[in-house]
Specification:
By secondary structure, this protein is mostly beta strands. It is built from one helix and ten strands; from the N terminus they run βββαβββββββ. Helices cover 3% and strands 41% of the residues. The strands form four sheets. It has a three-stranded antiparallel beta sheet with strand order 2-1-7, with no helix packed on it.
Amino acid sequence: MLGELGVRGDAPTPAQPGAPAGVPVASRAHRTFTTDFPRTEQPISEGGNWECGKTLGVDWADVATNQGLAFGLESGSGGYDDSTALVTGPWGPNQTAEAIVHTVNQFDKATQEVELRLRSALSPHSATGYEINFSCMKNKDAYSEIVR
């Protein structure tokens, strides 16, 4: 479960008139989003700031919030139906994220993990981008990885 989340990234900058096609334009503008999940919501929305895996992507599960924590709604038996929620709006290619994770009752015989997604998009039957994930295990099988 996440107790707090912060995301920072370059805001996309429109191409300058007369700039050659395909040449990125430098951006000094930054966009940030932070939350401590103050509302109880299922699925998470925070006033339309989030899009969710089941609601938008169809094949994934949604994320809910309660008492300052965000948590997944997947059953754990549906294969690759991870709970997914993305902060909405335009984001440039340079992004960072940090989170405070709250975990209790880790069960080492099940895959319990937290995933932070960057440069990601959701549409029906499609979830693209990068996942930074780590397991919530207390044994030698714990892991952390970046996947695309």
